[in-house]
Design goal:
Elements (H helix, E strand, L loop, with lengths): L1 H16 L2 H18 L1 H4 L21 E8 L9 H7 L6 E11 L2 E6 L9 E5 L6 H4 E6 L10 H37 L1 H16 L2 H12 L3 H11 L1 H15 L3 H8 L4 H9 L4 H25 L10 H8 L9 H28 L4
Antiparallel strand pairs: 1-2, 1-5, 2-3, 3-4
């Protein structure tokens, strides 16, 4: 039996490897996952939430370059390197965009950068004897431009990937735990259990998903984890219906009847014998739920009840900049929109590839 299972698993893996878009999507999702975990290691602005603002250079086009004067932080925090890697730097150095500078002895005179051809204010700082102008002034390129607050768009995109990516995992995990449990009870025991759980499923399904998520979010409060839980609690009904239908179709098969005759408990029959044989459709629907969770979170952030500022979120970035589409700077909204679209499409493609690979009829 185990040899047959292994052979079926190897056959499914082989079919999946032959699907170009499935393999490509898997690679893309893996890259996005690594970026979301180590976002601050890749981001040019590694401050917490990539929230270093420079209002004088707001809404600049991709590839914008400026000289940046870096002033050391006034207060040094004892932040560990692990904390910096995963949560960003707390003791952020002050950065000042400048258009011109000159050095007279230990005095560094600089002119602050201004837009629209205006003349910036000239200021000066006293440098330590061991510090040169080249140590504190660096040319900085904003590859994706800057947002309306002058923050680095590339850094915000990288850090924002964390929310969009991890909400898929958390939401799908919650939906699987609740959905498999409820679907197993309804499908295996039937009768009143089935009627009661199906009533809950139908009531939950009759409420618009976004409206239900908003209600749960408002009940739990605005925040990072509250959104994850809210999205997960609205996605279990699809899993429950699939599991229920699959269990109803297999619970009268010979291997289940034999397990009952051997005196196995219902819990063991469901977990050891039934669920492993109905995993294929559950895996496929989980991939679709990943994509749905990303879209729902983006919608919540767009409405202002998702991840709260200054936390970076792709949906919130679209909300902040959708007006710029008609102001000649559409890239401020299109870049995060393209990121959402590409990640959702990758999960949908990998779901289709898994469906084909796990289909025993082909």
């Amino acid at each position: 039996m185990s040899h047959t299972s292994n052979s079926l698993g190897q056959l499914a893996l082989l079919k999946f490897k032959q699907n170009f878009w499935g393999v490509f999507s898997f690679g893309f999702i893996t890259v996005v996952g690594l970026i979301s975990i180590f976002a601050y290691a890749f981001a040019p602005d590694n401050s917490q939430h990539a929230n270093q603002m420079h209002l004088s250079i707001h809404s600049k086009k991709p590839g914008f370059t400026v000289n940046m004067l870096t002033m050391p932080a006034m207060i040094e925090s004892n932040q560990s390197s692990i904390s910096k890697l995963f949560f960003g730097k707390k003791d952020v150095q002050t950065e000042i965009p400048i258009s011109d500078y000159r050095l007279e002895g230990d005095n560094l005179f600089y002119t602050e950068f201004t837009s629209d051809g205006l003349q910036g204010i000239e200021k000066h700082v006293v440098l330590n004897k061991t510090v040169t102008a080249n140590d504190v002034i660096k040319e900085k390129t904003f590859w994706f431009g800057t947002d309306k607050y002058g923050r680095d768009m590339l850094s915000r995109i990288l850090v924002g990937a964390r929310i969009s990516f991890f909400i898929g995992f958390v939401a799908v995990f919650i939906s699987l735990v609740v959905g498999v449990f409820m679907g197993s009870l309804a499908g295996y025991y039937g009768g009143k259990w089935d009627a009661f759980i199906m009533w809950i499923i139908n009531v939950t399904w009759s409420i618009p998903t976004l409206l239900l998520v908003i209600a749960i979010t408002l009940a739990l409060g605005k925040g990072f984890w509250q959104v994850f839980i809210a999205v997960g609690l609205t996605m279990w009904v699809e899993v429950a219906r699939v599991v229920r239908g699959q269990i109803i179709s297999v619970k009268e098969m010979q291997y289940v009847t034999a397990a009952r005759a051997l005196g196995y408990t219902d819990f063991r029959i469901i977990t050891k014998h039934i669920l492993p044989n109905i995993l294929a459709p559950v895996i496929v629907i989980s991939a679709a739920n990943f994509a749905a969770a990303i879209l729902i979170e983006s919608g919540l952030s767009f409405l202002g009840i998702g991840a709260q500022p200054p936390m970076a979120s792709w949906g919130a970035m679209i909300k902040d900049h959708y007006n710029y589409i008609i102001l000649g700077k559409p890239y401020l909204a299109l870049i995060p929109g393209f990121c959402i679209m590409s990640l959702v499409m990758a999960f949908m493609l990998i779901g289709n590839a898994l469906r084909d690979a796990l289909d025993v009829k082909h």
